[in-house]
Write a structure and sequence with these properties.
This protein has 162 residues and is mainly alpha-helical. The chain has one domain: Potassium Channel Kv1.1, Chain A, CATH 3.30.710.10. The protein contains six helices and three strands; from the N terminus they run αββααβααα. β1 and β2 form a beta hairpin. α2 crosses α3, α4 crosses α5 and α5 runs antiparallel to α6.
Length: 162
């Protein structure tokens, strides 16, 4: 395959990861509205606490919404333990949607940790971003498999006979 081939750039039209910050790097109105939300729920993961806002969680997750609005025992609990979850993974999951001023993009390194939580808590816009990232990874893997590489990795053979 010739190196002059056209490269395909994949763009995520729904990617809002960079929209949370103003051009000057100052917090946006959305940042200010969520930075100062009252923390009215605490989630406990591996003994560490996340102090969060029920409304913000409910806006993003129908699972959290049901937990806080239905007759589940968690509705009135001060601290809600989430057994079986890993702190680091749950933190990555939260930073993919909860804090607009801290939103981190979903990368090849984080997608497999975030996707199961996005699926479990039905955070559909994060599941879509994960699916997009996985699609990009598959396309890149296919390109790497199908692109022939030089055997000597760019080394040239020299004529040793004079």
């Amino acid at each position: 395959m010739a190196s002059g081939g056209k490269k395909t750039k994949i763009e995520d039209p729904a990617n809002e990861d960079l929209k949370a910050e103003s051009p000057e790097g100052e917090p946006t109105m959305e940042d200010q509205q969520t930075m100062f939300l009252p923390t009215d729920v605490t989630l406990k993961v591996e003994g560490k606490l996340f102090h969060l806002n029920k409304k913000r969680l409910s806006e993003n997750s129908p699972v959290f919404k049901a937990m806080f609005e239905s007759d589940f025992e968690e509705k009135h609990a001060e601290v809600i333990p989430l057994p079986g979850k890993k702190f680091r993974e749950f933190e990555m999951f939260l930073t993919s949607f909860y804090f607009p001023h801290l939103i981190r993009p979903i990368t090849e390194e984080t997608v497999l940790d975030i996707l199961p939580l996005a699926d479990e808590y039905q955070v559909h816009h994060i599941k879509s971003k994960c699916a997009f990232r996985l699609d990009g990874m598959v396309i890149n893997a296919k390109k790497n498999i199908l692109t022939p590489k030089p055997f000597y990795d760019g080394c040239t053979m020299q004529n040793t006979t004079t």
